[in-house]
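Support request from a user on the community tier.

User writes: "When I paste my structure tokens into the form, the page sometimes reloads and wipes my input. The last time it worked, I copied everything first. Here is what I submitted, just in case something in the input itself triggers the reload:"
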């Protein structure tokens, strides 16, 4: 199952800002439509390697997933992972032996993650995974500027079932917790204006994580750039679990303080009526009500620190020079503490925050996951609860 990565500095990427509808534009492009359309001039095959030529620089990178259409030989079409690039060509691997060169009117773009948009309205949208392994629950985004902080925040919630853009059943997190009929908060910007903001989204087609830099856009994320990490999808569980869908939110409308989102520290927030617990799961394991899931590192439970903030072992590791990671567990406290599942594709490093958002881990050996590529997605705020991060597996599968 592919893992797709998107960034705000990619060619053709939509602009995120503190204006109405800008978050929907980003999610449409990454989850549903793709972006960065280009026109190949020639497609040829040598054995299993396909070479695609362009008349202008294509701006794709190795490991990108590209969707090709228009070839009369169907084997060339579809979603393929880039193997090698130079300024005017890319290559990918293929099965079958279609004739070469390909014929037709070719088109290419960054492939979307595979969600659909079953309902939409003016600056409102609903997203849903179509993957066979997905619970197929619904994420609703209200980006019309009606939050308490204006259009620099979007309002989000999830439903088990929906019948139209404004109607659904079994909402989470509960409306009674956050008090707004349109949902809890996702920070987009530090101002209600059209200044662009950096963003970074990674998805396996079931779950996605998004990091947003809320201060004026920079060339790259840095520890000086305030950023928030949110997630929607479903836990990786040991046994089938139709209610393992999770959604992280902000606990308040203060853009700098306490809003860790998916990095939220565990502490003692097990009560579904406590909005300080920033991650909601559709229902508890027994299938009743709504319970807050709490993400925790694999070698500990209740802590006051955000995921990825503290360093417990040296970096580089003094003995073997390798990099260590732990799965991120989510547990429930319902007649006893038990692990509900893990955040899919996400890992915490006991080395602490060694990298900034968007940096890759490729050349250093990761213990137990040798040969895999990872990217760091970090949060940064004035409060200690919002300084940390997770490593995301770019090779998959997550579930």
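"...and here is what came back when it finally went through:"
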């Amino acid at each position: 199952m592919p893992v797709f990565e998107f960034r705000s500095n990619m060619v053709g990427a939509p602009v995120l800002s503190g204006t109405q509808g800008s978050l929907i534009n980003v999610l449409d492009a990454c989850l549903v439509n793709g972006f960065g359309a280009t026109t190949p001039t020639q497609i040829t095959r040598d054995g299993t390697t396909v070479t695609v030529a362009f008349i202008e620089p294509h701006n794709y990178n190795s490991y990108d997933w590209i969707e090709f259409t228009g070839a009369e030989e169907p084997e060339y079409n579809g979603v393929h992972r880039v193997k090698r690039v130079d300024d005017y060509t890319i290559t990918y691997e293929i099965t079958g032996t279609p004739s070469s060169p390909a014929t037709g009117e070719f088109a290419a773009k960054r492939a979307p993650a595979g969600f659909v948009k079953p309902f939409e309205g003016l600056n409102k949208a609903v997203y849903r995974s179509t993957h066979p392994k997905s619970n197929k629950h619904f994420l609703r985004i209200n980006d019309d500027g009606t939050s308490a902080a204006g259009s620099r925040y979007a309002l989000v919630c999830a439903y088990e079932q929906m019948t139209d853009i404004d109607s659904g059943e079994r909402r989470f997190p509960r409306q009674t917790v956050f008090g707004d009929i349109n949902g809890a908060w996702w920070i987009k910007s530090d101002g209600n204006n059209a200044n662009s903001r950096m963003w970074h989204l990674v998805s396996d087609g079931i779950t996605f994580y998004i990091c947003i830099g809320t201060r004026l856009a920079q060339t790259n994320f840095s520890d000086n750039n305030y950023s928030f990490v949110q997630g929607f999808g479903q836990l990786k569980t040991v046994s089938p679990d139709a209610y393992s869908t999770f959604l992280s939110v902000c606990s308040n409308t203060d853009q700098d303080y306490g809003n860790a989102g998916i990095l939220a520290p565990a502490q003692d927030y097990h009560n579904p009526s406590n909005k300080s617990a920033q991650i909601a799961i559709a229902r508890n394991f027994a299938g009743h009500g709504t319970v807050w899931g709490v993400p925790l590192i694999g070698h500990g439970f209740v802590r006051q620190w955000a995921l990825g903030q503290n360093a417990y072992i040296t970096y580089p590791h003094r003995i073997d020079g390798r990099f260590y990671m732990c799965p991120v567990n989510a547990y429930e406290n319902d007649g006893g503490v038990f692990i509900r599942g893990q955040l899919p594709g996400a890992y915490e490093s006991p080395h602490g925050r060694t990298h900034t958002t968007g940096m890759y881990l490729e050349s250093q050996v990761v213990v137990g996951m040798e040969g895999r590529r990872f990217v760091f997605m970090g949060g940064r705020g004035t409060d200690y609860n919002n300084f940390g991060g997770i490593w995301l597996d770019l090779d998959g599968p997550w579930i």
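Agent notes: The reload is a front-end session timeout and is unrelated to the input. The chain has a mean pLDDT of 88. The two ends are 9 Å apart (CA to CA). Escalated to web team.
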